[in-house]
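Why this split exists: single-chain examples teach little about how molecules sit against one another. For that reason, every record in the complexes split bundles all components of an assembly together and asks for one structure covering all of them. Below is a record exactly as it appears in the raw files.
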Amino acid sequence: MIEVRDLVKHYGDVKAVDGVSFVCPDGQVTGLLGPNGAGKTTTLRMVCGLIRPMRGTVIVDGHDVKKDPQSVRRSLGVQTDSSGVYPRLTPREHFRYYGGFYGLSGNKLERRIDEVIEILGMGEFADRRAEGFSRGQRQKVILGRALVHNPNNIIMDEPTSGLDVMAVRETRSMIRTLRDKGHCVLFTTHYMDEAAKLCDRIAIIIRGRIAAFGSPKQLMEETGRDSLEDAFVQLAGGEEGLLVSGHSEGNNNDRLSAAGRR
Amino acid sequence: MWRDVANIWRKEMVTTVRDRKGMTQAILVPLIIAVFYASFTPLLNKAMFERSQKPLVIPAVGVEYADPKLLDTMHEFGITLEGYEGDLERAVERGDEESGLVFEPGFSEDLAEERPAQARLITNSTAGGVFGGAFSDSRLQLAVSVFNQKVAAARVAARGVDPSALMPVILETEDVATPEQEGALWASFYLPILVAVVVAQGGLFVAIDVTAGEKERGTLDALLVTPASDWAILLGKMGAVFVTGIIPLFLSLTAFWVVSNVMPSVAAVEQGALPVFVLWGSLLIGIPMALVMSVAQMIASVRARTFRDAQSAASPLVFAMMIPGFIAAFAPPKALWPCLIPLYGPFAALSRMTQAGHLQWDSIGLATLGSLGAAVVLMAVATSLFDRERLLYAS
């Protein structure tokens, strides 16, 4: 389980993240939605312990990211937003490398690598060097390296971005499978239909603050809209990108977090 | 932590070794430099020797006025004067001839009557390249000088004076240099420069690849979200830079030594073989230097965002290493204490050893101590720079 508590991160005058709180329970998919520059990636980086929050903290499976970032990282599997892989390593070697950081070795690691390769359908290219891989193949390598240690909590930053239809379907199916197996999945996306289909709960982040938090149905009901996209646009302040006045109040996060826990 | 260090080191080594282009460059360039340095002096000696032995034909205007004994002396020096008709000065100026002599009528008579007999040497020091006009001139001057000594000796002897009166000082030369010192003499100039170039360039490509390369490929985030500590990441990567830095050093020094021991037979002039202690001495001072350079290269490239940025940031390090190498090559120190100075000390130790003709453990020890001290300080700097948040947002 991931608990984000009142995270604040400012860069000079820019309030990248300004008091963000939400909870991602096990066995659920939590979506973090927001326009570009809203603070999604900064929030995720604070969850992973890559960025130190100015205020607030993140608790992952009982570990406080401020006090014990290494234990937090050990509890997480992170699919980063960049699609970079090592071109001179095969996917199997990628998984062996990343698995090694989590204390896996020998037969146990090799068995787990075989499992990941099978789950992700990478058999055909598991032992080919990654140079020249398609975007979809690279994305599988990135997903595989996040899953190789079978983490309880999985973070995905725009996992379907730039993928073709089949790869998108496979990735979405993978996210559902992870949820069904009881993992806590936190992911960001720009695709509203994807969020509506996959997410049990959604946190909408606007200008570094949580503008709304709840199930897709709750968000649509709250805004009186019949699609998540329309609800999102309204919560984002309409076409002008203005914050909904009620959500700009200081106690907004608490109210929405509480709503999300219902 | 050490398990993570080994994991990172192994991965960096595998990806480096698989980079055929980079590896070829990393190995070939130092080898070429080593072979060039090792063969340059012997080839230069060979060219000078051959030029000095080659028969020289000098065009001469008025050769019929020249004294036959002068012509005989010139023959002894492999110089033949050949009659020339035309504008000799112009021909030399154009570079058609390297040099030429002009004898005026009455030359032989002046000589016979013990008046100064004048001839004119027309020369173009640039004609014929480095081994051209200047070489012809010096051979001619030497032949004339010997002829003058012979004539002067004959003249004073004719007056009943001992010809040795013309040589008030006789300088006897006794070279006490050992064969090892002779063999290491020219290496004492080239080796510091070779070690500087190879150590500075050796692991540079890998240092950039494991830092800025990670950012450019988009793999840095994935590494930073692992539980590996900052130290483990830094040490693992630095280990790879260090190892890939000393491999070219070892290869280039071996090549230098092998070529240096083959070249004396090519040189055709007396030149001692390069003693093996020079190879060991260079390696012993070069390995700690490679460690210092690995850390410095990491520091220079760790905050760079792209490969090109890192190259720009790390380039000055090459000069930081080469300048002390050049100083030691041109002005080798006599005292022991300069060996302790980081960067300069190893070169000072190398110069002292090549001059001494044997390994000097005190020089090596001080140089190693200085290098390790510098590495520790730089390591502290590198650790302070290796901050995950700053790395992600470094520009």
